[in-house]
Write a structure and sequence with these properties.
Helix content is 46%, strand content 19%. It is an alpha/beta fold and 276 residues long.
């Protein structure tokens, strides 16, 4: 079992990386750096997701949304919602009588989520708001389900964010965490290394160049995008193993903790219930 994040000293107690790019290579950034990074890559984020996963990311979010076990009229919160795709999946399940709130601390990502909400067919009620996962602006027990998709790995203080997610859930409510994980067995472990360490940062550079051309007026910082997609594989490496994440969820007093892995062990979806 890999060391859980709770054993890693918080960033503020460790020697600071000499530059943000060092921290990116180590896969650990302070919250303000994470926010700036996602503001920088917001315009290429959806394109990169589809390129990196050959479009499979939609299927993984649909699976995560199913595990939230929402009914029509339900209330759900999607934390670190980014450009909103998981929130839209949840809204398709809660329907017009329900409510899904997607929160994020990157205005750049939220702007894209809101634009997508305006452009899509009406399938359930969804709204996007600014919030920091470490301090959610909602009362206790406000939601039936709280999800986070590919966001938890970026939290500066994951246990604190998890306890916030649990706080806003009603007794019996569901937590779902969708994340990239590191496959242990060959050949997938070798492919994973090659793809994430070598190909993904280059793809980031290409996507930035392509977007710069198509958007013309919007100059995209290609090196900044490549650095963000260097941070991605490093952050996956220092993230919990599925077992260690389950142990962290247990420490947060969750019950019925379970996880599935998919895409050959590259993606893990954890789910749990708040004790009634
Ligand atoms: C990799 S994106 C995931 C976006 C989306 N959930 C998805 O499924 O594609 C990670 C998101 O987490 C957000 N994030 C990271 N730390 C956060 C925090 N403490 N509070 C709110 N949002 C946070 C970032 O701004 C970014 O939009």
């Amino acid at each position: 079992m890999r060391t859980s994040n709770s054993n890693v000293p918080p960033l503020r107690n460790r020697p600071r990386a000499s530059a943000s790019s060092d921290a990116q290579v180590q896969g650990r950034l302070e919250a303000a750096e994470v926010r700036a990074m996602f503001d920088r890559i917001a315009s290429v984020y959806d394109l990169m997701n589809s390129t990196m996963t050959a479009g499979l990311h939609h299927r993984w979010r649909a699976r995560a949304a199913d595990l939230a076990r929402l009914r029509g009229g339900g209330r759900a919160l999607d934390v670190a919602t980014g450009t909103g795709d998981l929130a839209f999946e949840l809204a398709a399940r809660t329907g017009d009588d329900g409510l899904v709130v997607g929160v994020d601390f990157s205005e750049g990502m939220l702007a894209r989520a809101r634009a997508k909400a305006r452009g899509r067919e009406h399938r359930g009620s969804v709204r996007f708001e600014w919030a920091d996962a470490a301090s959610l602006p909602f009362p206790d027990h406000a939601f039936d389900a709280v999800t986070v998709g590919f966001g938890a790995r970026n939290f500066e203080d994951f246990p604190r964010c998890l306890s916030e997610m649990v706080r806003v859930l009603r007794p019996g409510g569901r937590v779902v965490i969708l994340e990239i994980t590191t496959p242990r067995r060959p050949p997938l472990s070798s492919f994973h290394r090659l793809w994430f360490d070598r190909a993904v940062p280059q793809l980031g550079r290409l996507a930035a160049a392509a977007q710069s051309l198509s958007l013309r007026a919007e100059q995209i910082d290609g090196e900044g995008v490549a650095a963000a997609y260097t941070y991605l594989p490093s952050s996956v490496k220092r993230w919990y193993s599925p077992q260690a994440l389950a142990a962290e969820m247990e420490r947060a007093s969750l019950s019925q903790i379970a996880w599935i892995t998919t895409a050959g062990g590259i993606v893990a979806i954890h789910s749990a219930t708040v004790v009634e």
